[in-house]
Amino acid sequence: MPELPEVENLAQGLAAQVLGLTIEDVLCHFPAVVAPDPVCFAEAVRGRRFENLRRHGKYLFFLLSGDVALALHLRMTGQLLLVPRVQRVDKHTHLELFLANREMKIVFRDVRKFGRLKLLEGRVEEFIKEKKLGPDALGISALQLHRALRKTGRCIKAALLDQTVVAGLGNIYTDEILFREQISPLKQACSLDSERTASLLRTVQKVLRSAIRRKGTTISDYVDSRGEKGSFQNELMVYGRKGQPCSRCGTPIVKTRVAGRGTYFCPSCQCQ
DNA sequence: ACTATCCCCTGACGGC
DNA sequence: TGCCGTCAGGGGATAG
Fold first, then answer.
1. Which residue of A8, A36, A61, A163 lies most exposed, with the fewest beta carbons within 10 A?
2. Is A31 a catalytic residue?
């Protein structure tokens, strides 16, 4: 379940590994994984060099030579790996990008086939605008967040998961942030005043930066481009801890469903 | 316009 | 031992 820290960690690793390298050829095993289609995709990227990487929320953008840009979204189980060119691929590998002048290739694996690598028609900024993505969670200001929260009738968990409000938060980090901030996931988003919102945002950024330092959270599938797992799963205080005592007060952690997602919280510490 | 729900897809897991 | 239902959660599509 890659969220902002996992995508950031992947981006940092890839930047060191692939910038300056050229895509020699493309092999697609599952057509739906690329957009608009494998033929257009291959024609557009063949011979292009990786010039820059950029992340916004859970999206990773590859800026290639010739003003070509790609948008990657890992969704739940997607992985982008740099592996030896001769390595055999398994049934979950949907795309191979062979690199020129190197014995390596980039492969895209995704057990659940939800992830996508899209050739952009325009610039990255236009893509972000089309998707109506909000400011990145590490760049949003307290004022921006407060304005967005004020005008919704939804609960805080639903609002934080909404990528048009703030981009980058997913189910795991949202639960962890609300626990640390002692806010009920069911609290009305519009009921947070500007000071409470500022405090929430400090916790959002603290948790995300901490998770980046820990190289992400690996519960099942997440690995970086070298296949390395993260370790923030060892820092989780509520997610996946149903029935276990709250680290703050000892009350058993409760699991419910909020905004269509499994939601873990302490009913005692997060009662409002 | 805003919000809630369904759906995609596979693997893991629990009950019987 | 195997079959079946449920769950996992990104975001797009669709319904209300």
1. A36
2. no
